[in-house]
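#struct-help
A.M.: can someone run this one for me? Single chain, 153 residues.
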Amino acid sequence: MSYSWYITPEEYKIAESNGINRYTLEKRIRYYGWDKERAINAPKKKRTVYSDDLKRLVAKNGIKFTTFLNRVNYLGWSVERAATEPIMDISEHCRNVGEASRKYPLKYARLAERNGISQSAFRARVGHLKWPIEKAATLPINAGKSHRLENVK
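D.P.: on it. Structure tokens below:
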């Protein structure tokens, strides 16, 4: 009977010739549950090693190193930008999220407000009544009522 977690001396040699050391091979098979073929033949991931100077720059700029890594690896930022761009404060972050989720441009919402049109009326005009956005932001509330009365007569 053969045990799938048992690694023969020959398998260690094959793995080593593929650039896989003993420790990595054992972890792959016994801890991660990889099959032997994959554990022996799959290349190790290349890890980027950052210089101590870069790490000091990141720390000097008040950025946690994990934040730096997330910026580079997940957000696709350049190393320079990730190391130097300041961390956003919570209010700035909330503003950015709010702007990104805005359905109608802020300039029209503000125009509607200046014309005495509430945000709910503006959204109803554009969303439900399908008015053009500029008309929804500029036509006074009472003008709409008188306009409807004129059409009824």
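A.M.: thanks! The radius of gyration is 31 Å.
D.P.: also worth noting: The chain has a mean pLDDT of 88.
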